[in-house]
Amino acid sequence: MALIKAEYIWIDGTKPDALLRSKTKIVEEGKALPDWSFDGSSTNQAEGHFSDCALKPVFVCPDPLRKEGDLLVLCEVYNADGTPHSTNTRRPLVELEEKHKHLEPWYGLEQEYTFMKDGWPYGFPPGSHPAVPQGPYYCGTGASYMFGRDIVEEHLEACLKAGLKISGINAEVMPGQWEFQIGPAGGAEVGDHVWMARYLLQRIAEKYGVDASFAAKPAKGDWNGAGCHTNFSTKPMREDGGYDLIIEACKKFGRPDRIEKHLQAYGMGRGLEERLTGKHETCSYKEYKYGVSDRGASIRIPLATQIEKKGYFEDRRPCANIDPYEVAHVILETVTLD
User: Which terminus, N or C, of the chain has the lesser number of Cβ atoms within 10 Å?
Assistant: First the structure.
């Protein structure tokens, strides 16, 4: 009987930004992974007098940090009575996707993040700011400008070994700030892969003595914030005549009630107001606009989409600390409104 390690991973109830939790279960190789339980009173998901919560595996992949055969197991959280926990944002998304599966929605998430050391972005002098302002860091090279590349490369290899749909990486505008891209993938699928990639990033960064932060505005002043630009399309949008559907969706996103709902999912009260100022390649959160090839718009329509009259659009408002399940849900909900 071969035994393997299965790392059960879940999203907790910490506010304002949820944390990833995990623990290891020893299981027989090849056997179905069982449900498990945990102390919800220690993760902001239950009271001490009735603290048991359940973990139900929903996405499994190879664990690239351990031995061959070991697994990473992403789980949904359920109450003891078998109902989805209030922090389980994946379950409503799965149900919405099932309702609109004929549309075959695709998402691509551009996850920015910042390495932090002793409370400052990695590469910042402790308690101060770099002498060189924004400019040479984006997609840059050289030890004077690049901080954390070893971690980034190790993370990319780990994601590939795990079979995640990672489609690229690049250095971002601020020292110690990087990005990885996940997709194209379905809504629940892209969320699963983003959360798993975040987990691997934080685990690998531990070895280097730094933290991977998803804060929306990790450095005050004249520095870019950190976002999670979200690309979206449906099958009809990707086909001939799809451009009209994209414009129709952009107009729906501009309805006042939908603007508010999107901003709440995108990070309102969690740094969005500091990031979406109208500067640093953003549109102010107080304004809504869409445009072709406009990185100062709320929603950018790629030039190729306009030329080909089909394709996808990019919502540039989501912050780095989003819950990808919530973002996928609100986008699909708005696009499918009458």
Answer: C
DSSP letter (8 states) at residue 51 = -
| Other beta carbons less than 10 A from residue 52's beta carbon | 12
Q: From CA 332, how far away is CA 233, in angstroms rounded?
A: 9
Contact 110, 229 (CB under 8 A): yes
6: enclosing H helix or E strand? strand 3-11
Strand ranges inside 197-303, DSSP E: 211-213, 228-233, 290-292, 299-301
- Evaluate the CA torsion angle 273, 279, 280, 281 in order and state its sign: positive
3-state SS, 141-189, equals CCCCCCCCHHHHHHHHHHHHHHCCCEEEEEECCCCCEEEEEEEEECHHH
pLDDT in tens, 212-235: 999 999 999 899 999 999 999 999
Give pLDDT tens digits for 81-110: 999 999 999 999 999 999 999 999 999 999
Bridge partners, 4 (sequence order):
27
The strand pair at 3-11 and 20-28 is best described as antiparallel
Only one residue has tokens 């924004």, namely: 134
Taking the complete model, does pTM exceed 0.85, yes or no?
yes
3-class SS shares of the chain: helix, strand, coil, % to 5: 30, 30, 45
* Contact criterion met (CB below 8 Å) for 188 and 106: no
Domains parsed from the chain with CATH numbers: 3-88 (3.10.20.70), 97-335 (3.30.590.10)
Residue pLDDT, tens place only, 33-86: 999 999 999 999 999 788 999 999 999 999 999 999 999 999 999 999 999 999
- Tens-digit pLDDT profile for residues 251-272: 999 999 999 999 999 999 999 9
Give the whole-angstrom CA distance, residue 57 versus residue 317: 31
Quick check: 195 and 180 in contact, CB under 8 A? no
Q: Cβ neighbours of residue 53 under 8 Å, at least 6 residues apart?
A: 37, 38, 39, 40, 43, 45, 46, 77, 78, 79, 80, 85
